[in-house]
Request: fold
Amino acid sequence: MKAIYEISTINFVIISLLVLVADIINYFYTGKQLNLKNFRCKFSCLYLIKMLFKFTIIVVIYIIINNKLLINITQHKYNSLLINILLWFLIVFVIRLYMLIKNILNIIFDAQIYKIKRNLHKFIIDYTLRSGIIIAFSIAFFCIIVYMYDNSSILLLSFLSAFIILTTIFQDKIQTIGIKAKEIDDEMLKKSLEDIARHAKVMTKIFVSELKSKTANACICGHGDNKKVIFSSRLMNSNFSNEEICALYAHELAHYKNNDNIKQLIENIFYIIIFIGLFILFMKHIFVTPYLIINLIYFHLYILPIIVILYVVRNIISRQIEYNADKYAANLIDKNAIISLLNKIEDDSLIKINKHPLYTFCVSTHPKIQDRILKINQFII
Ligand SMILES: [Zn+2]
Reply:
């Protein structure tokens, strides 16, 4: 048992150090791209505050897992459901609080450095309301899991399977929770988009999000007759031409034609199977306490290096999916429209600062714009 705490703590310390080192490298790498002196001072101060905040959270987690606070709980015979729910509530609450402070710092950072104005007051109210709903739902969900875990593993597996199937069926509804969008009203543009859809033999509804966004992008979601493409508001409000908007639409249709949502589902099921398999092994041979939540916490810390590797692999796959969608779109419409779109997205983006290439290799879900253009030119001559 002792080895578990030690391995978990070592894993946590190593990954935390890597995160902090990445922050320091990014500080110098992005800082170099800002050359105004006064600006640099502001940038350094804000960056330091963000890093200090992250460091505090890491230290707090370190103290909790290293002084065996959690393990001491297992020495007592508390009510299993109560302890599980209490700890689960604390975890979700702390994560939401962490995200809230992180987002507030980002909004201040964006306003000061990139001159992006967002309504902080409105954000805090929206976020708090959303957090309340998320916490309530996640506790209800976790209660069911704990109850089944304590009583019947077959029931638990069936419940989880049903949950995965339902979330897949209602994926479009879940993805668009909180996104206010209206149907596209530019008739000429709508007609051009519908022409592309007919050509690709995929019909979708077309919406424009009413949320303010930093970049011009879009997403496709849903199945059957409920498929929809949602464009970000920035795409309509900036000076993108109809051809460029059509190019983005073709790229989104390509995701559907390439069955990327099914690939993603298979990928997710694969991760869930690996996760459950490893958890069963972990519980059988290595570690077990009467409380599911404590088992899960140490399990996550124990397999942290595997989680990190899978995360990087997932991003590599995601970038490949983007290249393939570009390739399909370049075959469907004029490739120059896509290249022009990509160049404009890069020019239009309010955040033009690049992070270190090694960092983007690990965390970025999309390839760099210039790499995408290079690939399109390679695919189609
Ligand atoms: Zn894409």
The pocket of zinc ion is lined by residues 251, 255, 322, 325 (CB under 6 Å). The first strand starts at residue 181 and ends at 183. Strands lie at 181-183, 205-209, 218-221, 228-231.
